[in-house]
Amino acid sequence: MTNPRTPLASLSDDDLAGFLAEQRSAYAALQSRGLKLDLTRGKPSSAQLDLADDLLRLPSSTKDRAGVDVRNYGGLEGLAELREIFAELLSVEPSQVVAGGNSSLSMMYSTIVDFLLFGGVDSPRPWSQEETVRFICPVPGYDRHFSMLASFGIEMVTVDMHQDGPDMPAVESLVKDDPSIKGIWIVPTYANPSGAVVSQEVAARLAAMPTAAADFTIFWDNAYAFHHLTQEEAKSADILSLCAASGHPNRPIMYASTSKITYAGAGVAVLAASQANVKWYLGHLAMGSIGPDKVNHLRHVEFFRDAEGVRAHMRRHREVIAPKFAAVDEALTTGLDGLEIAQWSHPTGGYFVNLDVLDGTASRVVALAKEAGIALTPAGASYPHGRDPRDRNIRLAPTFPVLDEVRTAMAGVATCVALAAAEKLVADRASGVGAQGDGSTPSAQDASNPATEGASR
Amino acid sequence: MTNPRTPLASLSDDDLAGFLAEQRSAYAALQSRGLKLDLTRGKPSSAQLDLADDLLRLPSSTKDRAGVDVRNYGGLEGLAELREIFAELLSVEPSQVVAGGNSSLSMMYSTIVDFLLFGGVDSPRPWSQEETVRFICPVPGYDRHFSMLASFGIEMVTVDMHQDGPDMPAVESLVKDDPSIKGIWIVPTYANPSGAVVSQEVAARLAAMPTAAADFTIFWDNAYAFHHLTQEEAKSADILSLCAASGHPNRPIMYASTSKITYAGAGVAVLAASQANVKWYLGHLAMGSIGPDKVNHLRHVEFFRDAEGVRAHMRRHREVIAPKFAAVDEALTTGLDGLEIAQWSHPTGGYFVNLDVLDGTASRVVALAKEAGIALTPAGASYPHGRDPRDRNIRLAPTFPVLDEVRTAMAGVATCVALAAAEKLVADRASGVGAQGDGSTPSAQDASNPATEGASR
């Protein structure tokens, strides 16, 4: 870096006071700009949605390949040709794929409802009849996974999310003896928010590990399977085959969608699982469905043509969003590099940058940003019940704003991070708490914080 | 009628034997034609679906009236302009309407899941924690309502469906003292399959009746609200206002969809209820949804423009399907009039003709028809668990085949009805069971069978 800086915690009291004054001044300038920017949600931008606008004039036919009228009722499992495209993309058999409505989240919700009310293929009884149901939640993770479980009264046990997947010794220990541990959330490829990719080795361990619950289920939410930010495209582990080979064919249920491929609100979602799980899912689905929107299925089939069409389309997305991720990194580096008050991920795919700030300052950073007109996801959002025990994690979502706005917003965020850290250090010194090297700075914690190892600076 | 016939039960043994021989011969001729016709499901025909094909090139915009990009996430309650159209059509406020996906059945299913897992606005506890949950099911009724309840383990108590709605003394008696009675299915307008329309008086009684369960709920499935077959268009009772006026604002939840207006598989569904119920429903929906397909919402708004657009579109449907219902009536009249072995409804809307044959012969009629290449809905389908205690009810769905096929199929059905009745009477006489006027013929039962009073012959 052109401007090597001293770690903030190493500054003398006077220098720290000077730094704080500088940041206050920078923040006042930031506030005076009257910004109104939003980095809260992982939403595609208009430019990304535009890429799929041929959908608005499709389908050109009203019949599927088999001659079935897609406008009418029926076809619970979804259009065969769409399931084939996703089977190829997800390395599964078409018969293992169910194509549904516009939301994989809805398919996850339905799956858990089925477990609660009816029990799964390998369940001794419906989950609603269990005294306690618990899920393993790698953190940081996807807030909607957690709020869904909370709404069902399912307890959440956290484990650290590493760069190659969840902390496996912790996971293996939890599932081994406790039959109330019924599931785990995994976002295997470019995880929300860390960008981690589950390795083949971790996937194999998840597949093979002994579990006290016969119906322990891996909710494999492959939302970003094809959402690469570099030419080095991560390949998702083949969890269905791994589990089948380990004698646990019904353990994983995989989800994906085109929400971040075509239209976020009007795409198609898929589920993939063992034949037995597919039959189970469709059996319950049949009680409350007249079939998916097959017109939208055909619309997508005509738009993509084949799996390669999806991959080519994702490269066009990459062109739009990769510069935004670069802008995030550049702004954070410019504003914070060397201060040792923050570390952030450098994702090669997905929709988020994971920012860890000085312990105990994440909420303050979000509040400062808000006062300056920059909306960030609430601190702690990536933890169950929104509670980050160290109050240091912030999820950045740079896809929705245009590039210039990302630059402006992130420069502002860097100012807020620096100001909050300086405030904290000054206050700590005044109260005699901590000092240099007190263990609360990320640099001192890298070794004990595998969640961001190798992915941060 | 040009060919007045003697009631079959009044024939001498010889004449009855002659009639049976005639019908066997007619049936053999029918079989020899090698037909392949289907009257099983209430599906729109291709010609009806074609009426909505402008949808394939819509929407022309990607923004709603408020400027929101319909392609992106969000807008859980659905597009405001679509909710306004349905609010007008259903005589409710837009704020009482939620617009969802492609299936009102799915919204009903979700509602019951919410009651089971969380309890409703007025529930003392989730239904899954009740020892027994029971629903009142007017019969004949919609098979999917019943199979849904069966899948949830909800018990079904039947009452007769009259021409003005369910047998209210029976309903009032059931709900008064039994807190396990939690709901009732009502298809208020052109009921499936009887074509009955719930009167204002019956609706007012449903709204006002005291119920032992505080959370007793009317599932008001207004699937055929706008599906008139004559110029005399039935107006649905305003169940939301009636219930609110009676101090039971949260009692009714109304459902409708465009499945039989635009595309059966790719339409839009709506739910309407009190503000408290809407808030409750959306609160749970938010846990498993990223918003409905707003592109399809806008597509429908642009297609209809307004409520009058929907009404005008339904008149085009009427032109296509009213002749098919006339053909059903004509074929049954030609084949069966005067024999007193069948009575059938003369619906002024909806999708079905309700055919009651000689007690104990419905299954035989369906089997005979199948052997002759005419698929009918299984006998008993309109009863919980598919069990019609009198084995006499057959649901006819004439909309899907083209007009000529309806004529051919229904002439064949008349033959099957006559053959099965003759077989039964001959067998009964041979075994000494019953005879003329034994109470098993519809003519003798009209008085005790309010379900078809005034609607059959």
From TrEMBL, chains A, B:
Supply the name of the protein: Aminotransferase class I/II-fold pyridoxal phosphate-dependent enzyme
Region: Disordered, residue numbers: 431-457
Q: Does the keyword Transferase apply?
A: yes
Q: Which InterPro entries match?
A: AspAT_Ic, PyrdxlP-dep_Trfase, PyrdxlP-dep_Trfase_major, PyrdxlP-dep_Trfase_small
Q: Which Pfam families is this protein grouped with?
A: Asp_aminotransf
Q: Does the keyword Metal-binding apply?
A: no
The organism's taxonomy opens as:
Bacteria, Bacillati, Actinomycetota, Actinomycetes, Micrococcales
Q: Keywords assigned by UniProt?
A: Aminotransferase, Transferase
Signal sequence coordinates = none
Q: Which GO terms describe its molecular function?
A: transaminase activity
**Bias-annotated ranges (Polar residues):** 438-451
